[in-house]
Write a structure and sequence with these properties.
Blueprint: E1 3-9, E2 12-13, E3 26-31, H1 36-48, E4 51-56, E5 71-72, H2 78-86, E6 93-97, H3 99-112, H4 119-125, H5 128-137, E7 145-149, E8 162-166, E9 176-178, H6 181-195, E10 203-208, E11 213-222, E12 225-233, E13 247-250, H7 256-273, E14 278-287, E15 290-297, H8 312-320, E16 325-330, E17 333-339, E18 345-351, H9 353-357, E19 362-367, E20 374-375, E21 386-392, H10 395-408, E22 410-414
């Protein structure tokens, strides 16, 4: 589970040779916007010699506003989206960026006869309650859990400590720990307020808190069989009250027996959900009782974090197109830090970029926050200030580089002025 540096197809390094094969494959990418990850897939398709067709939920009235020839579809009507793609010609494969696009892609794939995860399986991945039920029924370790209609206002939980979470949001949005009745009521009301502005499930899930170390696993599934691409340690403890992720480092420093247990549990979780073909991103916790699967998403790791696995997008595209491709692994370690937002406000500027970039082991510093834009931390927020990327000889050195570079950055966040109506 080391750092990926190139892509092989039938044993040939194709990272710099797109002439493998006699004809260009055609793959559709379902994505919410033309964001960072969409651009990364576009670049990977160019390197791989694949014709990539974008299908996005942009306004169908505007005629190609970004000049990318994307097909406008409506995510709320996936069957219609399948018809639109079917009228656009033949495709060799389909990929998706994000949880909602993954479901749309699954419906399109089923209609057009393309390999992808089944719609029912993707829908279960997006529903934390349904996924928990599948894990429990398959004999996996699960916490105590139940769900409450968002319209209710319970004053206490059935057990403490507990974690409250919306059923349909991702990336730890709305996830809050409560240790007593007062914290539980406050957390429930806070999630209610968040969900008023979201098109998501009308339930809030309550789970007993799982002690332990947290990990993320990136993999590809083919015919129901899991191939692990990377296992990331999350060295920062995630004990609440919120669960903002910061550092991912691979390869994992856990002993072989723990990594084997994580791999086996993830494979069982994939089978329980019914996932069959395509990328997956899984999160889990490990303690003395074993491996507890938190979730499995029917999509690759989100956003710019994918840069921690060079070649990932090209691998996904090639496998979707039916090529027998795999990642060429090398020694060393890589890591990414999702720079957390310390407080709500308006982003002004950042100092120390050159100093951070000069830290030994740092390969890239990307600030995604825009000057003058309001930024909101978890649990309501859904973004970061930016990303740090590191490569080093060991995971410990990669983690140290990320922490050292972060210390060099000084973000100025101005107080947001209140809105007067």
């Amino acid at each position: 589970m080391a750092t990926a540096v190139a892509v092989l197809i039938n044993g040939v390094d194709v990272a710099s040779d797109v002439s493998v094969g006699n004809s260009r494959k055609r793959v559709v990418l379902v994505a919410a916007t033309t964001g960072y990850q969409t651009s990364m897939f576009s670049d990977a398709a160019e390197r791989a010699g694949i014709d990539l067709v974008l299908a996005t939920d942009r306004c169908h009235v505007l005629e190609d506003p970004w000049g990318d020839h994307a097909i406008a579809i409506k995510f709320d009507h996936p069957a219609e989206a399948a018809e639109a793609l079917g009228a656009a010609g033949d495709f060799d494969g389909i990929v998706a960026v994000g949880d909602r696009p993954a479901f749309v892609a699954s419906v399109i794939a089923a209609k057009l006869g393309l390999k992808f995860h089944p719609p029912a399986a993707v829908a279960t991945c997006r529903d934390k309650f349904a996924a928990r039920e599948r894990f429990r029924d398959s004999g996996l370790l699960v916490p105590d859990f139940y769900r409450v209609p968002m319209s209710e206002s319970p004053a206490e939980a059935r057990f403490y400590p507990c974690v409250l979470k919306p059923l349909g949001l991702s990336a730890s949005r709305g996830v809050i720990r409560a240790n007593n009745d007062l914290e539980f009521t406050a957390a429930f009301r806070r999630i209610q307020a968040l969900l008023e502005h979201e098109q998501t499930n009308d339930f809030i899930q309550v789970e007993s808190f799982i002690e332990g170390r947290e990990f993320a696993l990136e993999g590809m599934v083919a015919g129901g069989r899991l191939e692990i691409l990377a296992l990331f340690d999350k060295p920062d403890p995630l004990d609440g009250p919120f669960f903002e992720e910061t550092i991912y480092v691979t390869p994992s420093r856990e002993p072989a027996n723990v990594q084997t247990a994580i791999a086996g549990t993830t494979s069982r979780a994939i089978a329980a959900l019914g996932l069959t073909d395509g990328p997956i991103h899984a999160e889990m916790r490990v303690n003395e009782r074993g491996v507890w699967m938190l979730e499995v998403a029917a999509r690759p790791i989100g956003g710019l974090c994918a840069k921690a696995i060079p070649g990932l997008e090209e691998l996904i595209l090639r496998q979707a197109a039916g090529d027998d491709a795999r990642l060429l692994m090398s020694g060393g370690a890589s890591g990414v830090m999702m720079i957390p937002i310390p407080r709500e406000g308006v982003f002004s500027h950042v100092q120390g970029l050159e100093q951070a970039e000069a830290v030994n082991g740092i390969v890239d510093v990307i600030i995604t926050a825009k000057q003058g834009h309001k930024i909101v931390p978890l649990p309501e927020g859904s973004s970061y200030l930016g990303f740090l990327f590191a490569r080093a000889a060991t995971p410990a050195a990669a983690e140290l580089a990320l922490r050292t570079a972060h210390e060099k950055l000084d973000f100025e966040i101005l107080a947001a002025l209140p809105v007067i109506s």
